[in-house]
User: Fold these one by one.
Assistant:
Number 1:
Amino acid sequence: MTEELKQIKKIYGEKMSHFCREMFPTILEQEGLLTTILKEKYQEDKDLYENIVIQGKQEDFKNYIYSFLKADDDTYIVTSKKPAELLSEVGYHLYECKSEEDIQYFKKYYAKGEELCTFRGGRLRKSHVFFAVKKDVDNIKREDYSNPKRQDLYGTSVISIQFSKGDTNRLSIKNRYNHVVNNPDATFSNNLDLINKGLTKSFAEEYQLNVIFNASNFELEGYVLANDGKYYKYNSERNNIYYCPNNIIIDNFEVKKYDPSRYLVIDCFILDIKDKKITPYVDSEDEDFVGSLEDIEKIEVTKIEQGKKINIYFKNNNKEIVTIEIDKSNNMIFLNDPNLITIGDRFLSHNQTLREFTAPKLTVIGNRFLSQNKDLTKFIAPNLKNVGDYFLAFNRDLEEFKADELTIVGSHFLFRNEALTRFECLKLTNIGDFCMFHNKILKEFITPNLINIGSCFLYNNLELMKFIANKLATTGKKFLFHKQLLDSATWEFDNVKKTGISK
């Protein structure tokens, strides 16, 4: 292995060095050239090769790297047409937002739970904001797209075209699905010319923008191109802020790095080991999580196989130790908080990676608890009584659910779960709309004290074998929906006044 390949191995991993030896033999003949290109374009990242392979982008990546050797490459297609004209040619109306009121007008086009962070306010301080809306948008319905794809007709029927403010203007094209699809903030690979040829140059000239343009149209999911010209792998994004491994935050495309000897950037939080405190980077949406970790006496960080284990001790001797585990990219994967009793809305609502949650004293949970989490497999809260709407709404992997005291759950409870095969809550009395909507494999549902069920309960399920709800009195529309279940399952409910199907 040459010295240059050894350097690539050190920065990007052994598999990446083998890949480079195979793909770039000509560039490697010029000592140091390939390393220079990679370091200019990619932050240190041992997962880069695996992400290229997983996404099938080997050939695209090869073309991207070779594109930097081309001289006098004309990156822009020039046109005399204005942006509104070019967008009209492909079926869009273009709107420029000059006030917060202008932005809020477009919120009506977004389904509940899929609204852009842009609608939370303040975006015009950092970005130029436009919306492009298909001329026939009223005929494009969300319910017709049960398996969203970023570039499908619904996802691209309303797009927000945004340029960061400053000396350079980084482009982001935001999807109508928002976080339901991968890389929703890089629709059309953040290349306006993929919408209509010449649109990039047209925007630049019409609005005096210094647009950073990616000539190769190369895009890697889970990576963001920052103002320093480098791609950074990120764990999560919210409101144009990207939270990355290695204690890096990309804020409106500006790179911010935190000293690892003092700080840990975990999800959207900054753990200050020296000052013994944890704070959200931007807002107070997760104030209950932060509030439960106040008055810290000691923070103990140890390495484990998955990443790091963090034990938090408190000045109040009545508070028990809180344990957090993070993976090698600083994603939170485990949380045991024995001090939580009640939590409000949006508790860790943007976390997608937590795998286990334990809170033995927890009794009440508000709306949107871990609502974007996809990976949780174990939820243990033996004293939990009430939960609000959108509880684990996007989770697909939950296998163990223990909440023996649970009595009331809101709408969209476990909305996208596809892994539970048995659900037992002996004290449960009320369930809201759209609960377990996407679960297809649940076989046993045991709730002997259940009285009310909302609409579209277990809408997609075809495997139910046992349903016990002896006190069930009312159900909403499309209860269980599939009538073939009636002949195959064991039913125990006698007093039900159904507004959906008949027993």
Number 2:
Amino acid sequence: MLLLLALGVLNYLCAGLFLGVFSNGFDFSVVHEAAVRLVHGQGDRIYDAFLSFQPGDRSLFFLYPPITAVLFSPLALLPEPAAWLAFQVLSHTALWAALAVWLEGEPDPRLRLRALLLFLFFQPLYLCLQIGQSETIILLCLMLALRLEQRGKPCRAGLCLAAAVCLKLFLAVLIVPLLARRRWRAAACCLAALLAAFLVGGAFVPWPTQARYWSRLASPFGLEGFWDNQSLTAISYRLMAFTPYTRGLVDAPALARALAGAAGLAALAACAWACRRASPGAALALGLTTAVLISPHSDTHHQGLLLLAFLALPQARPGRSAWLWFYAFFAQFQPLVAFKFLSRERLDAFAAAPADLLLALPALVLLAFWLYCLRLARESGEPAAG
């Protein structure tokens, strides 16, 4: 066990700390640029690249709601290299703060050690650190939300959940388990905070620009079949549509969109049903997995958020372990991440159905893991709150 712990620390120092600090952080650069424009009074331009994006482009663009740029605006006061270093310090601090929140009050030394090892070996989280995503900060928000709910502080829990949604919009799905479990105050506080965040965004980004952004976001914008999209939407489009990235069995994008929507609604309904009497940890694990699965565009780095699910499930059902699923899910993660860095010509070799399903392997395993979470949430059982 000491050897495993030593290997985990080495993994963190190399893949997390060293590669995090010295990588290019290209995703962070997009958010930093949007925040800089916001600070300089150019809020009407933060979505220029997104609104002009054409399917097939490999360009990056700012895709988040306006409040995200507002939250990152303090880093916009620094030049990008200094801002990147500050963001890395913030991200690693949030990672270890999240671990401290999770371990607080945990009496079982085996579960404490398991949590530490999961943090040290969770490769998707290190990918987030290397490209400059905010998953570690979101994990801290979600863990605080869970602990605050368990301590009978629903309003604070709702505010923490709202902070997570501001950073990743698809996490709004987590409101559904709250409503299913009748956590009315937590849900109301979360929704009120999100409304306030929307209004704050309106103070910096003109409403016409926001209208164009939300309209484009709600419609297909060409990334459904993207190589790194790992969601139900991606599976549908890879089978039933010809896209600039993959070629399905037939070219029926309307059918692909309809099936993706129906599957997403079915998964959301199943999540709400299973969460009615689920424990807080099991409900959050299922809600989080559902959010990643049904998001119209879900990159592999979003799966770093599933660390919380792997931590919560053994507690939701003592005696049942998620370790087998951990290895089944992530044994194939690192090789498939390499698709991000392959040339277009090599990716074309996987573009035609049914070979394109190889690109969706993480999504298929995620679907299996979602079914596991669904079962444990249904079996975790606790009285519904009034």
Number 3:
Amino acid sequence: MSRDKIKLADIKVAVDKITESLLAKPFHEFDDIEKYGILYLLQIIGEAARLLTEEFKGKNNQIPWKEIIGFRNFVVHQYMDVKWEIIEKILYSDLPDLNTKIQNIKL
């Protein structure tokens, strides 16, 4: 299996886990451990995106790979500056769009 296929699968699993969690209850009701779990899944998405080949990202440029990777880097290196309001916006505004675009990728 190609690296791109594996990393895309990692992204899909992380997106699905986040989506399932948000169906159970809204993000603002999550306790700290649940919030940090979501943050970890977002990091997985960013790390998997970073490891995709440039060719794959170029062919699928409808997805903002650079921003996803940049967000991962911010969370990993400036974790004390994370604002939960921004995470909530990402979860409800950006993640559904990413999910749709990821589902439409054909390998």
